[in-house]
User: Fold these one by one.
Assistant:
Number 1:
Amino acid sequence: MKINEKRLTDTFLELVKIDSESFNEKNIQEVLASKLKALGCTVYVDNAGKKYNTNAKGNVIGFLPGTVKSKPIVLSSHMDTVTPGKSVKPVVKKDRITSDGTTILGADDKAGLAIILEVLQTLKEQKLPHPPVEAVFTLTEENGMQGVKNLDYKKIKGREGLILDNEEVSDLLVQGPAVNTIEVWIKGLAAHAGVVPEKGISALEVAAYALSFMKLGRIDKETVANFGVIQGGKATNIVMDQLYLKGEARSLKNEKLAKQTAHMKACFEKAVKHFTKKIDGKVRKPEVKFVSVQRYPAVNVPKNHPMVKSVVAAAKEQGFVVRPVASGGGCDANVLSGFGFTLPNLGVGCRGCHTLSESLELKEFFAACNITLSAVLAYRK
Ligand SMILES: [Zn+2]
């Protein structure tokens, strides 16, 4: 039981030559759907692409029936790349593949796509007893994860498996933060600052007061919060009546994120009370509009989850030590976790993703494919 390294490399090289920057995934989506069909999968393409501005129809879900009784195992990678990702000319070196330096390589995440195709091919070719496998290829991960957010996930029968969208094969991402984007609009009361400042309410002071007792920065080991944008004010002689703040909070625990967000909101409410006053006999108070939108939920795969254990064991056989680690950012796994999926994110061997010096380390690439194959073969549920 071994994958075909030459074929895996050829598939990768074929895929990186297909332009697929975010929102231009039509070609690769069609190629992948037909490759899955040729491998004996039932293929369903959802309508995610109709829900936002991409030229592709949708996410691709391929189902390969199992030869042993089990729930399906899910393998997922994204189809899009960042820019500049057009006319990629891969350069194959002894131990790695790079671009020619004028574009990205696109190993993020075409290495993942190639691995999944190779695993399916190996299962079929070597007639290995295996559970059903579901390949989930998503659109537009690199731009707000819009593909997966619109995924027709009810068409997927499995709920456990692997995402292949990380760099080093030794890092298995099992935790990733939930993120809320927070916007605050403060409306004070304008007044001539030189003549009657007491008739004004400064939106800036309201914000400053709220922020003075708000917990920001590092909240605890798992939680952080920050305001990164502030806009307001017209002139030095006007009490500032409008102020806009934009920030975010992140936590590895959904409950902690909710708590931090509520705390931030409460600080502004306290400031509103503090600055409420009588002006010319009338009660005047600042107005605060606080809007928090969840960008994506947290990923939290227990370190002793069978999926993690089987990856760690398979890696050991390949001579690699895989450690379950936390990420500071988000990927498809976060959104899928919100849909009830448990998908640790395995590295595919790329380096320098999103840069012109992106490379794919072949030894790790082959190992990631073998590890994925072993994890599939070991899966029973
Ligand atoms: Zn990626």
Number 2:
Amino acid sequence: MTSTPTQVQQARPQARLDARRAAQSGTRWGLGHAVPWAALRVSARGGDLHARALMEANRAGAMPVEVFDEIRAAGQLYRSRLSYVTAHLDTVKEVLGSPDVRAGIDRVGGGVLGRLGEWAQASAPIGPLQPPSLLAIEPPDHTRLRRLVTRVFSAKAVRQLEERTEQIADRLLDDLVEASGRGEVVDVVELYCARLPVQVICEILGVPLEESDLVRAFGAGAAPSLDMGLGLPTFLGVDRSLRRFDEWLDRHVERVRREPGDDLLSQLVAARDDDGTALTDVELKNTAGLVLAAGFETTVNLIGNGIALLAEHPDQRAAAVADDQMWANVVEEVLRYDPPVLLTGRTVERDTTIAGTPVRAGSLVTTLLAGANRDPSVFTDPHAFDVTRPEAKEHVSFSSGRHYCLGASLARMEGRVALQRLHERFLDLQVRPGARRRSTRILRGYLTLPVALGA
Ligand code: HEM
């Protein structure tokens, strides 16, 4: 069939739009990934410790603790070619609590490149690091939005979810037994660690259970968005996942508005500030998206990392199983030793001092959360995994300051229930060969963890 002249005329603007979008995506990739990664390689070859740490972290699952130690030994605030960096717990907290910094790292900067970056950003999908995400805004907007969300995500709300989480864990463990048949090896990440937080967060946000696999797939597709140095195909795949997630969120928020339930998203729709203001549509959708993604892309890793560490340290596992009061501290030690989030970054807004060093506006600061968790001035024998250590909870795996993880108490509860229920039921659980870590670098955890459940 041949096209009519009108169809041809209509197709031209669409083709131009597509071409512009493709050029913008390519530019975003170049400025955000290809160029910084090339600079990183050169810096690493020149001996820059920060670049070396990032290159080493690039090997799936590796945690460059020795380089973190070197960075810490170099001073409170190490000046790398890319940014200031710190692996000292007190300085990490100082940076994250400072009113002179804003969340996020601007990889492009000002000038011509900055303008090119702004142009390219115009067609970017809304992600967890773009406004109005809580992770990308600052006071007063951040204070208002966070206050509203915290009203719904209260400690009381989390306590009420504990019993339901236990039921979900027990049902998943029954399924695990069934899947293992007569002692077959099963992937505990796929069947347990990933399913538990997704099901909990879906219930919290009123997502029907049959859509939870879809949500999980969006999350997995979008998880590399936090990393630097993505290849073009991965970058475009992340973009596609974020767009699909965004379209799905539109439909979901609309559904919750139409038929509110007793879930927390329905409460968020109805939440009002003291002066009567509610969340805007974009804020609501973005917050729901952030809570969904942050809610399971990290907690799955906490549970998986915990299972692997306890299997490597059977004496500590036995001590925890013998004393059910110990599980809360087990979770803290897992978070400290093998944190699900490697690092975070800040951009300095105005000239300031950090740890006594003058730092100019526009500078970048990388806070190595995983490095601060091994700071020997806070943690005795920091490279030892010890579930009884009294200071385990001092870690910064949930960040610090005003962006401190909003879901920390939920994640702690889920981690405790998941690890305790699993280990109390399968005392002889053993990890079998074939474990693989995820390829994401900022988000750290297992992709596959084959286990034999034992008796
Ligand atoms: C083990 C699990 C988790 C870890 C390790 C974790 C880690 C983090 C970290 C490091 C930040 C701050 C990043 C920064 O300062 O730049 C953060 C923020 C956040 N997390 Fe979590 N998280 C976890 C689970 C959750 C859960 C279950 C939820 C769901 C409610 C959640 C929701 C959020 C939100 C909404 C923020 C943004 C807070 C703000 O900017 O004010 N997280 N999380």
